[in-house]
Amino acid sequence: MSNLKYNLDTLQNKARERTVRTQNVEYDLESIVKRIKNKQIKLDPEYQRRHRWDNDTASRLIESILLNIPIPVIFISQDIDADTESDDDAARFTIIDGQQRLTAIFDFMNNNLKMSGLNIMSELNGCSLSDLPPFLSRRLDERTIKCLRIDSTLDPDVKYDIFERLNTGSIKLEPQELRNAIARCSFNDMLKISSQLPEFREMLRIIGTEDEIHRNAKVMKMEDVELTLRFFALKDSGYTSLKKGFKDFLTEQLVKLNALPVEEIQKKSQEFSVYMKFIHNNIGTMPFAKLRMKDGKVIRTMSTFNAAVFDAVAVGIADTFTADEILGNPDTAASRISGYQKLFEDPQFFEDVSGSVNDQSKVISRITKMMDFIKK
After folding, report:
1. What is the model's pTM?
2. pLDDT tens digits, 214-242
3. C-alpha to C-alpha distance for 77 and 210, rounded to whole angstroms
4. Residue 81 lies in a domain
């Protein structure tokens, strides 16, 4: 208590600077859709997750709106004051919580969502906005969305704090989605871009049309971004520093990597491209598959992609060859890794990519075994 008395001024300053000013507002659907279309509202700020709702979930939200069922309040951040002049393409508001709901509303109101999976108003399955009968269209005209508008113009970190507090400890967010919110910086941005490398996505079995890729579970949950982070976190013998839980390890590594100079981040991005294209070109589209081997032959493909195998193959190669060595003499590197699948006949290696694969001993063992194979 005495310590609190001596630090009262500091506490008062923090309370004054970080206190959130809010205002309850309501927007009709047409107004909020217009604001999104005109980019006055930024629907996908950098800390937000990717759109994850499937068509049925989005449809049930629209059904709730039509039935006048209350939906949760949308949290929006006012980043530019209404009286402040700004560029026409500068968003005045960003979404802190409610991205999935607003995306569903925006898609439906733009006639880009055909409803499905409805139980109460099942007659509307297969219908879009233009198919609604007049009485339901009138309901949409009268419906409003409640929002809590937060003034964060004084401190840009307020919206990130709120996003983290709304989602920390909640099962709604995957680990990488939360890292994306609380560890924002240049390296994190690079991860999101690098994860979209076509060869990398194909090896992760993220394939199909653009819409199918957008709806892929790995993409929606940012697992592709986490795997990209996983590569950089374990690379350069980073795996030897793995002591606590793997989730915390990845978060700590991301914080460290975020501190790198921009030039170094760009270099690492280029190296990632070199390694992934090399693996894709010389091993094929399923280099990270988990196999059951006997006498040098594949008996069974147990999974087309396995994160532990990804560690062994990708990090093992990256910690054996520099990117320049691969670019300078790819044939030599390719001959050295040829036949690495024989490792699956080693009971210890197979154990290293099975069960609790993120245990420190297993991570170190599988990567070391891959490197030993290459160096033979």
Report:
1. 0.60
2. 888 888 888 898 899 999 999 999 999 88
3. 31
4. yes
